[in-house]
Amino acid sequence: MCGFAGILAAPSVPTRDLTRAVSQMIRPLTHRGPDDEGVWVDEEAGVALGFRRLAILDLTPTGHQPMRSASGRFHLVFNGEIYNFRELRKQLEEHGHTFKGHSDTEVILAAFDQWGVREAISRALGMFAMAVWDTRRNELSLVRDRLGKKPLFVYHEPGLVTFGSELKALVAGPSFDRTIDPQALAAYLRYLYVPAPQSIFQHVVKLPAGHILTIRNTQGPLPEPGSYWSLRDVALAGLKDRVAGSDDDAIDELDRLLGDAVRRRLQSDVPLGALLSGGIDSSVVVALMQEASRRPIRTYTIGFDDEAFDEASYAARVAESLGTDHTDLHLTGEDARALIPTLPEIFDEPLADPSQLPTLLVSQLARRDVTVALSGDGGDELFGGYNRYVYGTRVLPRVNWIPRPLRRAVAAGVSCVPATAWDRLAGLSSIVPGMPASRVGERIGKLTQLMAAPSVGDMYCSLLSAWPRPAHLVNGYQPGDLNESVLDAAEPVELLDRMMLADQMTYLPDDLLAKLDRASMAVSLEVRAPLLDHRVVEFSWRLPHRLKLREGVGKWILRQVLYRRVPKAIVERPKMGFSVPIDRWLRGPLRSWADGFLNPTELGRGGLLHPAEIVRSWRDLQAGRAANGTRLWAVIMFQAWRTRWQV
Fold this sequence. Notes:
By secondary structure, this protein is an alpha+beta fold. The chain has 3 domains: 2-229, Aminohydrolase, N-terminal nucleophile (Ntn) domain (Glutamine Phosphoribosylpyrophosphate, subunit 1, domain 1); 233-383 and 506-571, HUPs (Rossmann fold, 3-Layer(aba) Sandwich), CATH 3.40.50; 581-647, no CATH class. Helix content is 44%, strand content 14%. It contains 29 helices and 17 strands. The protein has a 6-stranded antiparallel β-sheet with strand order 2-3-1-9-8-10. It has a 6-stranded antiparallel β-sheet with strand order 4-5-6-7-11-12, covered by helices on one side. The two termini are 30 Å apart.
């Protein structure tokens, strides 16, 4: 796992200038690659590639990047792993290729020589972001993996393109316009992340997952990237080709696919472990890892002093059952809060998922012993694990039958009752199975939002939304985003499929995977997600709903794979999530710090935000009238980010 940056400028920029500029760009990426660095420049073409290396495979100098193909045609910087590189190497050797080292980088370059960039990428199984310079065609190809596990940002102004693994590399480039995109800001405040292809900056795009962007001319606008793998197409094709056979046949096939995905991700020349929460997803990954290992694997868990957010005891039970070499670390809220000032530096595009804190903490813990860790990310999105899928399929179509004026009137009445009052009402926690009584008010708040929504798609968006009305917050906001277009599309026909597709296309890559990448790479830890092997994703779309949701419980088929290895009683528990008590912190130890960002003067700085609703929400939280800490956390993180990056 590594970090890279590069420049494509007008031809004949002096080599010295290009070298200095790209060296400046990779300097902020040292955390992504502490082991080595390299620069390659072609003055005549105006191209420069810079690289920081975290050595995982082939620790010798033959793994150094930027790397040139044997033919001399292609120059590459590559962040990620190709898990089938040994099979590809064997095929290429049959075509006459020879190799100096043992890295996957050398193999993918030979694949470019043999098949071209697009065909080679289509054959690759892995997680990656790449920049490839073709000296024969004088063109730059920027590539991102199918699910968006590895990041790639692109900045453009007339005569200049810069690109890199993180925004901080682009900010350090030879030129950078820091104008904020109001549409991206509105999406961020709504969803807690900025959906691709937008970025928080108006002149920067995120390359979408599964796409290749080919650039030949820097003077005109950026061309549209081309898709080499489409999640939407995969979903629609899978829904038309459901798996045949019995439930046991489907379980066997998923077991086989997951076993292969895990084994491939155990390839490493450095110490390897796993992040274990004790939930279904991480437990099945750890179980398959232990099954494939001759010695106890290392597993890591963070525990908190707040029982509502502490999963350490569950993880310990799973670890004991599987016989792993387990490490857990119990932290206080103060330990987590101490990291907050570092977040705008680590997450150089605003991200307000509160689970960024425990993700960073567990990455720090694992990095004490290992350089690579496997995680269980993706299980909820692929196999129907979120409570909102059960709630959505049961409730949203019924609510939609109620006339909208009546829905809005009911929502107005419910919203008059403070969230804390709902929390205190005895027995209400049974409304939402597994939901602690202290969070019922939060869910009631979500209910009032969806009651006022005009369509089923908008209702689901309201369940995802921190601030459901961005127009009240951001100057220049225009309605419409990818979530809305997926949820209100004619296909897939079933609401559950549209909900899962929307989450896989936006929330998964732009929140969960972005959070995991930045938090882990901040401490030079590579994290691999076997549940998001694209073959597993393709198979998941062929599964009928009964194998995902059954009797109100999600991830049915994934649970069956796990029950073959871990007693059911050990892993069956209400879904907790992976977060922190942000409402309590903002009312207590973080109050004075947050207040500095949320006063009307600071909120109005630059004319981007309308302060009134934010200030009112802050007062409601402090008075106990609303459990709206998450939405306020989004504003605070934006304000802290804006201060750090001088925007």
